[in-house]
Specification:
Chain A: GO terms for molecular function: electron transfer activity. The complex is a heterodimer of chains A (249) and B (309). Chain A has 249 residues and is α/β, with parallel strands linked by helices. Helices cover 29% and strands 31% of the residues of chain A. Chain A has a single domain, classed as HUPs (Rossmann fold, 3-Layer(aba) Sandwich), CATH 3.40.50. The N and C termini of chain A lie far apart (58 Å). The chains are: A alpha/beta (249), B alpha/beta (309).
Chain lengths: 249, 309
Amino acid sequence: MKILVTVKRVIDYNVKVRVKPDQSDVDLANVKMAMNPFCEIAVEAAVRLKEAGIATEIVAVSVGPSACQEQIRTALALGADRGIQIDTAEPPESLVVAKLLAAVVAAEQPELVILGKQSIDADNNQTGQMLAALLDWPQATFASALALQEGRLEVTREIDGGLQTLSLALPAIVTTDLRLNEPRYASLPNIMKAKKKLLEVRTPAELGVALKAHTRLLKVEAPAERQGGIKVGSVSELVEKLKSEAKVI
Amino acid sequence: MAILVIAEHDNRTLKGATLNTLGAAALLGGEVHLLVAGRSCGAVAAQAAAIPGVSKVLLADAAVYEHQLAENLARLVAGFGKAYSHLLAPAGSAGKNLMPRVAALLDVAQLSDIVGVVSPNTFRRPIYAGNAIATVQSLDPVVVATVRASAFDPLPAEGGSAVVESLDATHDAGTSRFVGEELAKSDRPELGSARIVVSGGRGLGSGENFALLETLADKLGAAVGASRAAVDAGFVANDMQVGQTGKIVAPELYIAVGISGAIQHLAGMKDSTVIVAINKDPEAPIFQVADYGLVADLFEAVPELEKAL
């Protein structure tokens, strides 16, 4: 089985974002960037399927400027076989990314596409579902376990209030949640080997996808700061405050 | 053009987040329809029809919609979606699963987790785990969005009398199948909609010690939550996680017990009306957002609090 896995270059999750003074966006100048954590889980899931003898080839795809080749190389170091960068100035909005990925799927014909459930920058949680719609493939979002059984994919999903298990016909789309696995670190020899793996660059024009804007970002603000309150000296004082001052109990 | 809200339900009961989503719809102006898609879900349609502000309930009652499979539901909604100005769903796991698929079928964008309505085509939504708030304008003919329930006041559940119209179209993509479900059984209110939430962190030390919080929660009629650290330590199940990657809650009272207050946890609860923190470390960051902080050993303070109520 050929697997396509997507990776996004985002701000490192340990970095605190700052809004630009002109409120046009967040400030990403000189900020440490990394692979989106949910994409790391997607790569790990693909690599494990290859180690289990189920996957035969893993293709890692990223959409964005040439800097995102760094994250593709990381995926290659983790075990992906080759990479494709779809070259755009900025990462486009989800629907356009889904269209670009659909074009890659048409060319590559994978049986499974694994994506992170969301990126930690835009927090959209859309691309996998949109790609599934465009391809008319079944989807299992927020996956916490997956297994191949008799030619179908059985996926356990994290839903509100518990877990749900679905059985999907292949080809299919899976988006990863935190519990699916714990991603490995790339070893130095594998990082060196990754540099020699094939990484192709495609343009949206080659893929026949127009970069249409469906939304306009008008403003980005810092959220309202919450003011800290007081320290109470005892449980009885706390109960008193909650009853008479806050009036919540 | 009217606004369509997609109801969240379990074929028996309409979920509270639907009322908050209708609250957001009411800010847009225009007639509001509510879609109830499921199986043997007539009781939900009846509850939906009683909501003032809903002018019509669309009932799609068929086996193919029983488990809210996105493949089938997206076709149903996209089938008549262009007739509406807005398609809204609560930003729970069902809405997040469905709405992007609907949007792509309609060739429009989807706005996730809106927390404010600026105008009928402009919305505020959190990005970077709530560390920034974006104002986004839709350029599409139909606005498809998921709504963060805690950011909008709910409509009342009673007092209306909408007409219920049955839809006969059944869409079966035939590519996905429901296998099973394990839902946490609890008599406590749902974490996402509870008026009071009691959450525990790594400071609890073990899963067994969460019993302390459960006793307190039951006395308060509260839901029980947990920090990512407590979930990662294996104390409790992931569905109790409050935070950036878990549930976003905004109850009237949030009691954080043994939680240090990592950014990722604060992102999930900082919009609560009143925050109480109980932690033995006076330097814990949770105290910076707490209205009432108590520096104490939780194993003494929690039982004492429970007795004092």
